[in-house]
Amino acid sequence: MTDPIAEACPIVEVLDHVAGKWSIGIIVAAADGPVRFTELERQVEGISRRMLTLNLRKLERDGLLIRTVYPTVPPRVEYSLTDMARELYTSLTGLLGWAERHRGSIAQARAAYDAGKTPAAV
Amino acid sequence: MTDPIAEACPIVEVLDHVAGKWSIGIIVAAADGPVRFTELERQVEGISRRMLTLNLRKLERDGLLIRTVYPTVPPRVEYSLTDMARELYTSLTGLLGWAERHRGSIAQARAAYDAGKTPAAV
DNA sequence: CGGTATCCTAAGAGATACTG
DNA sequence: CAGTATCTCTTAGGATACCG
């Protein structure tokens, strides 16, 4: 089975974890150095505390994030990317770049598509 | 705002459409030529008819797929990638490659993570 | 500060019968 | 063949109060 489609299927599981709405934001936010929980909460805009925690755990479990706890008086927890995640970040930026370049076209395509459907409410 | 995080946020919307569990499979399946509905139903394994339709519409709306209907006696509908989508496919293969290279490590990381948590049920 | 725990709503997703 | 319509169940996700 060198068939790319057959290969893709289980991989999509992996991608599902990695390319999730929030995962990408978290990875990007952690890309340039260790980040603390509250920093993430601020930087990954729109995320709720719950979702942040869940995604953080998921990424940690998948071996993409390292969670370091400093047992100081005000607790300090830092998240940093593993090498694997850094490599992913590279691929991600490709995707990010694509999205950036084409989001205008996508918005236009949507508008055009909708224009051809909705007003047909004869 | 050259801040990559701030930039990433609206883009994630785009990615959300494009990097969805099924979208990737569909794009990959359509990458090497026009594909028919039933072909997709078979190739994107595990997808339900409903989800296939919904995702197909979504991708068409975003200007990533072109839907061509041949008004023949048995209806024939073909889906093919737009140039934009082909470009995306390139970025996607990068991600796919990453996932392929690391899924073993990810599985291991998961096992290790779980091993350190679950048996602690003292 | 860095989370859990809890509650609730909306969206995602499967199955499948029906239709032009 | 290529969908649509429906029904149902499971998650994703938001809000927020509380705790070590």
Automatic annotation (TrEMBL), chains A, B:
SUPFAM superfamilies: Winged helix' DNA-binding domain (SSF46785). This is Helix-turn-helix transcriptional regulator. It comes from the Bacteria. Keywords: DNA-binding, Transcription, Transcription regulation. GO terms for molecular function: DNA binding. The keyword Transcription applies. It comes from Amycolatopsis acidicola. The keyword rRNA-binding does not apply. Residues 9-107 form the HTH hxlR-type domain. The lineage of its organism: Bacteria, Bacillati, Actinomycetota, Actinomycetes, Pseudonocardiales. InterPro entries: HTH_HxlR, WH-like_DNA-bd_sf, WH_DNA-bd_sf. Pfam families: HxlR.
